[in-house]
């Protein structure tokens, strides 16, 4: 979920480079930078030492002055503030919004209590994932969802196409894309106490997955208790003209403990939390069942179907998928996307989709897809990196325990 | 370091921020540790030639761009290495980079302590963080490498180009 294949991009450039010369790469990178979109926090990032890189058409900070290692650890110890304004927030409004959206996603949106949300998946006719998204039922006729920056155009085209057909049949639904807003993610153990300084609402009564519209630091914000790190935390949709002030206030109230954190540490954090990065760990040809998101198919949806690709997905739930997303620990160099996974005899079992060195666990972690049968925790595999095989073992995820704020 | 490193998003990012923002500070920090007596390759490795052995590692500038290293891959003793070809790899939390040899020769020793402490390359790139020792097969190749002043200028120009 979230993002747009940063590391995949890095890896594909790496592969291409071995066959080309440096000058052409320099030109290519240089040319693209002028076309990049900037969030309203761009100057703020640069002023704080942000190292800006192209990401899904945006210029975003990959890290600040702290190393990726230190940033990752500080998020879990204190907290992180991320600018995720490149992600696309949109509202569906109208009395048939839920009926419309349920044709496109696997979740039981009708069954959500107002003011709560869930991770879900937009599917295609073959049951493959178009994108993952966090969907909130604000009220019975207002849905708020956030989709990946890298998937924005295709998601909006997909939704718009289906919306036209739905409205032509008399359905009442319309949309608003929240380009007037910016999105900040505040994550880690200090997220709630620090945010509490800036709002009168009692955050101790707001649990994981819940959504409020409230005043934060003098601006009307959409607040979701969610995130992409495995920590407790929030995503704050703030009117863009108030975004810089809010970022400053959050950092100030934490007395320097919550630090600006870039996409590099964000990727380490989500990997440690066992969360998918769309474009790496989930793609058009992968179903949510294969990706381990069977839990996100609501019970009612399993019996009723009625979403794109339901025939494929419901059959996979009944029979079990042929491949499954799993986690690995491994020795040797950190596995990266596309590292091959084989058995003792060298026969192919699958492929790594994301991997790296875990700053918290101080060892290699990875996720990838394996043939069903070899997917059980404890199964020993070999991971092939630069032609050499290294020991790996299938491991349950999350790698680092999650700390979502749930009622006890 | 191989081209791969400079193409990585992180490396590009570092240069962008330096040329537009606090370049003075970063350049000072960056080039303060180019050592006299060593020769440098455009791919950011250093060579120290003593007698019939040449010691090779990556520069302080290179380790600074990469960040904390978590794994180092080294060749076998006895391996034959060609100038410009990769002899190993270094991995940071996020990026993988080949390490190219500035000269040709036969590997006579490798720094096996790096397998337990790859971070030595970050803390001591020119001493404890050395990677391999070669018996050079064409010592004249050393003449094609940069001296410290030339390498400093090279890094400056490369940063300025971004």
UniProtKB/TrEMBL annotation, chain A:
EC top class named in words: transferase
Intracellular or extracellular location(s): Mitochondrion
EC number per UniProt: 2.1.2.10
Gene Ontology biological-process annotations: glycine catabolic process
Domain of life: Eukaryota
GO MF annotations in UniProt: aminomethyltransferase activity; transaminase activity
Family annotation (Pfam families): GCV_T, GCV_T_C
Assigned keywords, A-Z: Aminotransferase, Mitochondrion, Transferase, Transit peptide
Domain Aminomethyltransferase C-terminal: 324-400
Assembly: The glycine cleavage system is composed of four proteins: P, T, L and H.
Entry similarity comment: Belongs to the GcvT family.
The protein's name: Aminomethyltransferase
The species this protein was found in: Kingdonia uniflora
Lineage: Eukaryota, Viridiplantae, Streptophyta, Embryophyta, Tracheophyta
Automatic annotation (TrEMBL), chain B:
Xref: Gene3D superfamilies: 2.40.50.100
Cofactor(s) it depends on: (R)-lipoate
Subcellular location: Mitochondrion
CC per GO annotation: glycine cleavage complex; mitochondrion
Annotated positions of the N6-lipoyllysine modification: 94
Cofactor binding, note field: Binds 1 lipoyl cofactor covalently.
Family matches, as CDD domains: GCS_H
Stretches assigned to the Lipoyl-binding domain: 53-135
Keyword Transit peptide included in the entry's annotation: yes
Record keywords: Lipoyl, Mitochondrion, Transit peptide
GO terms for biological process, alphabetical: glycine decarboxylation via glycine cleavage system; protein lipoylation
InterPro entries noted in UniProt: 2-oxoA_DH_lipoyl-BS (IPR003016), Biotin_lipoyl (IPR000089), GCV_H (IPR002930), GCV_H/Fam206 (IPR033753), GCV_H_sub (IPR017453), Single_hybrid_motif (IPR011053)
SUPFAM superfamilies assigned: Single hybrid motif (SSF51230)
Protein family (similarity comment): Belongs to the GcvH family.
Subunit structure, interactors included: The glycine cleavage system is composed of four proteins: P, T, L and H.
Job description of the protein: The H protein shuttles the methylamine group of glycine from the P protein to the T protein.
Name of this chain's protein: Glycine cleavage system H protein
Native source organism of the sequence: Kingdonia uniflora
